[in-house]
Target: TonB-dependent receptor
Amino acid sequence: MKYRLDENTNLLLSGGIYHQYIATLNSQESYFSLYDFWTPIKSDIPWAWHFVGGYEKWLGDGENLRIEAYYKKYERVLIPGEFFEFFSIPAESLKRGSGYALGVEFLLKHKIKNFNVWFSYGFGITKRRIDTLVYSPRYDRRHNLNLFLGYSSGAKHGLLKGLTVSMRFSFGSGLPFSAPMGWYYRWDFDIYNGCLADYPFVIQGSKDSGRLPPVHRLDLHIEKMIGSKKKNMGFYIDVINLYARKNVLFYDYYIDENGQIHRESISILPIPIITAGVRLKL
Model:
């Protein structure tokens, strides 16, 4: 629903009740999922109700300000336990939980001659509940910030004709994880030696006992168009993670011979990724 305050200003309001008949299940203990397991739900269908309110202001040609706040309540949420558990038992037999998500999002689009600037920020909180346990799930990122700067030359002749350059900076606060609280020796079968052996195992803490470091990166896009509006060719270069930020994907813990716990940071895209290509419009 949209209510117009004046020709450039709107109030936004929406809500609804949603049911999910196909669930995506994955390990709740892993930092990331290599694959998701999809399964139909035949009874006790998970449902949620959403409420979203917002404010929208048009500032000019292609310029606007938008602020939204939301609250979402979840019921009968399927929450797997141990990894691969959902391969051996029906979805209806998994643990059921509840939860909520709330937050606010801000978006500003501004244009200055040949420059376009987009700024967005979001703050959100997500919680899950199983019986008496209340925790932050692994995707509970509290702060998200994005800054986009784009330049279009607008030149009709010369080397700058058809040239566009854009940069995007993104920042996100750390995700929750289960920080270790100790370790112990456990007897296990050694398949190489064919005998029992004791191995050290890390004892995980509560689901949201730790937070990973914030993540951020800068991406660059450069493109040069040749030809007319109807028929043209574009050459482009993309650079992801321009300044080689080593964002932590997860921690790998191990125990040395002195019984001390150590951790190693595993990063995603620790070096710049460069791609180039050609676009054709005939």
Summary: The helical segments are 85-88. The chain has one helix and 20 strands.
